[in-house]
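ok so heres the complex, three chains, lmk if somethin looks off
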Amino acid sequence: MLKEGQVRIPSGCAISGIIDTKGNRFSGQEIIKSIDLMHERSNGLGGGFAAYGIYPQYKDLYALHIFYDNSEIKMKTESFLAEHFDIENAGNIPTRPVPGVVNKPLMWRYFVHPRTYMAREEFIDEDEFTARYLIRINKEYKGAYVFSSGKNMGAFKGVGYPGDIGRFFMLETYDAYMWTAHGRFPTNTPGWWGGAHPFTMLNWSVVHNGEISSYDANRRFVEMFGYKCTLQTDTEVITYLFDLLVRKHGMPIEKAIKVIVAPFWDDIERENKEIKIELKAMRTVYSSALINGPFSIILGYEKGMIALNDRIKLRSLVAARKDSKIYVASEESAIKIICNNPDKVWSPKGGEPVIALLEEGAQQ
Amino acid sequence: MSLNFDFPDFEVVRNEKNCNKCKVCVLECSNKVHFYDENKKTLNVNNSKCVNCHRCVVLCPLKALTIKKYPLEFKENSNWTSRAIKEIYKQSQRGEVLLSSMGTSNKFPVYWDKMLLNASQVTNPSIDPLREPMETKVIIGRKPEKLEFNSKGKLVTEIPPQVELNIPIMFSAMSYGSISKNAHEALARASSELGICYNTGEGGLNKDFYKYGKNTIVQVASGRFGVHKEYLNAGAAIEIKIGQGAKPGIGGHLPGRKVGKDVSSTRMIPIGSDAISPSPHHDIYSIEDLRQLIFSLKEVTEYKKPIFVKIAAVHNAPSIASGIVRAGADAIVVDGFRGGTGAAPTRVRDNVGIPIEFALAAIDQRLREEGIRNHISLLVSGTIRNSADIVKATALGADAVCIGTAALIALGCHMCQSCTTGKCNWGIATQEPDLVKRLNPDMMYKKLVNLILAWNNEIQEMLGGMGINAIDSLRGNRLMLRGIDLNEKELEILGLKYAGQ
Amino acid sequence: MKTIDASNMHYRDLNAVVDAESLKEKNLIIKNVYGQRYIGRGLSCGIKMSVYGVAGNDMASYMNGAELEVFGNAQDALGNTMNGGKVVVHGNAGDTLGYAMRGGQIYVEGNVGYRVGIHMKEYNDMKPIIVVGGKAGDFLGEYMAGGVILVLGLNLDKDEDIIGRFCATGMHGGVIYLREKQDPYKFGKEASKVKLEDSDISFLKKQIGVYSKEFNKDLKHININSFSKYLAINKNPYANMYCVY
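and the predicted structre for the whole thing:
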């Protein structure tokens, strides 16, 4: 059977996300409970989490989480890493045995800093340098897979039900100001750890529900800008789209959202002249970045999270607020199980983002 | 040279029982196939003049006529077909170059028919186009690499001039001269009602049609007929015609007999003078010269009009296309070798160029590899026969398509492929006033509107089936296609997986 | 009266308990519901059930005459293909509420999501009714072929609209009543606004009465004449779209 990257595998899913907008950190227990409730929406072939604010002691270093098939490829990859990065710290990612979570690959964690002079020679910044070389590992080092590469954040994922994966990685021992989670329902896969979600790239993480129908249009568009969609999953291409728009093209995040879920031409026509010109330009220049088909996603980055679903709301998404915490999930019950009495619960409209960012001055 | 070996292609069969000798056939046939013998009171036919245009058959009130293939065959020989033999008879008669109209009649593979579309089942929903929004609007023109916003979030990037098409279809370039004024009027009015564009071809723009400028692409070809400042500023965009799929590397020739008063004033040449378009533009002998012409047109239109460049699909189309993007064009129009024409040397029409499907796939891929596909729009033509062809072209990577032959068929063309004679009984490819008036633009423009709207409905149904509600998401989305009856190489060029994969 | 605690129960177990209990007891209470699916599916006449918590997807699907009351919000596809009975939601409900509903009534105190009443239909004397107290999302009454949808638009903020876009697209039967006049651009081309008849006024009065009783709300201030009524223009809206080839 072919794994992710060798073939495109559609999948359905459950997603959940929590942020404390004041930057207070809390353990992974709640998010596990939330995603666990939506057991029906995954099939045990993938689960994962992204956590922000978990490595304050290394907050200026890129935290790399890497799966290895064997120690041989680990050595090769590490010598490539050492050529391009200063490795400040390295070690196993701690886990505990959990029934239902088996066949684990080698899992290593590195805190690194790019070799600054090398980035300068190529006239690129550190983010771009890091992204480029990590994309190279995923593309060229067969058996090695970088599944997390941001600062002060990390992804934890594997084959199994998401709750089990959370317990396996002992997420109750981490404190984060933001957690997102994913339970996967792939339609055919041998179950490869790298193929689980979230997909991450630098500080971006995406968890996603639904199968997008614009995949190849989006893929061929981002690949013009140096990305390589090695996994052939929707989540991967969505992450690259945001990275391209916001990081590489410097677009404000609200504008990027309007590209990804572009307003209908009819609705643009009803806007005033200035907005009309702007929206038309965005739809025209980035028409291939429109994501089509059913999806709900939670995009995480250092500033917070953004939950979003498609223009005609083909996937469900519920949001709630309680004090400084904002919750989003595929089902309302997955919020209520951890927050029984929210101040507000609402269902965002199709294409209407839930923007839940850290407050000004909140500690990251 | 008295003995002519040739014999008729068609036989007109009259059902005498049905015929009431109303003589409509005599009146309607510009080729004078039908004639009435006053003495014998009989209707007769001259089969050798029949081009099988169906005019008499369609208009016969009692449906007493049929036209058959002439029932004379040569002794069977797979190499020396009837056509091969008859061509030799023709050429040995007077030493002429064979000339043909419309697209090639040779049996080449039509790759559109070897691609199958996808549809959603379970993992994502199909979308119902009748009840949910389904967008087929496209914007044609150059696009900046990225958009920039100032610190207040206001857009600062300037957007180059573009053309908006409500439906991703344009009418191909067909000049006034090669087709009639009434045909042009029908195309112009339909475009205006549909929110799409038609194309003047290299015949200039008649004064009466300046009012449709918003829906007009004005063409600049090597003969520069009718090209002047007002003309260049009259349309929505300017197209530089380098070549045409039916006759790559060959110019055009409108015989003087078709240059009447009105064609003369539109083309700005004397009445009765031949209008000869040279094979190349004699100010373009290299790619940097193309840039010079593109920018001369931009200068004279104050950078308000997008400039399209139309080429025939030839072997190295991908690198030519790349050059065109870098020369500053806003859109590329690629015409495949099965495309139509008013007249082309038969040998060229049937032997030069490559299929549009391959050209499109290869150009789109090449421009993506160079990272410049998004800078321009890519339009294709050359046997777009129905809405499925358009959906497949879009999935291969086209922004929009141009249709010529299909539009003419909607106007009544019966594909007799005899445009060069100028005696088109349907009032399309003719300048004879009596024939031209047979095409009533008030009625016929509506047929074009009907056709395009029906196709748009079909495009929407297919998009919806794929779970897509904006055509933007189909462009270049080759995973929506699978190949059938194709070999590995063909799949590789088209960038497709095989059905079942 | 029998109370069932749904805590940590899988829907299959929960529904099996409900099936068993409903043979003995016609009044059931389910507590601590967190998203369990299919509650009340296919349940017949004579059974009354109160549900506390967040009712999961496909609640009251194929329901056949029972009465459900939800104290809390309901998730998606409430009343999916419901054949008869009554559901009262003291809260909000999600997307595709009443999908292909053929009979019975659903009353929602607050707001509902996208595609509510999609393809609801009527047959003989079966005529489904959906009453929404707050607002509805896009595609309300899409493909609607019969029955009634009534949206009251109560307690909305200034910037909230009573309906979204694409209301009544593909409508070819049934009636939609909306409080106040709505912008025409929000509607599909298959529906049109018509005048209120006397029979409409009495129907609206009756339904508003039911709503105010169920949710214990004083709605005397509502001006019945301010409702607008939408009907399908045509029972066969696409008759001219296809030709045989």
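quick notes: The mean pLDDT of chain C is 95. thats all i got rn
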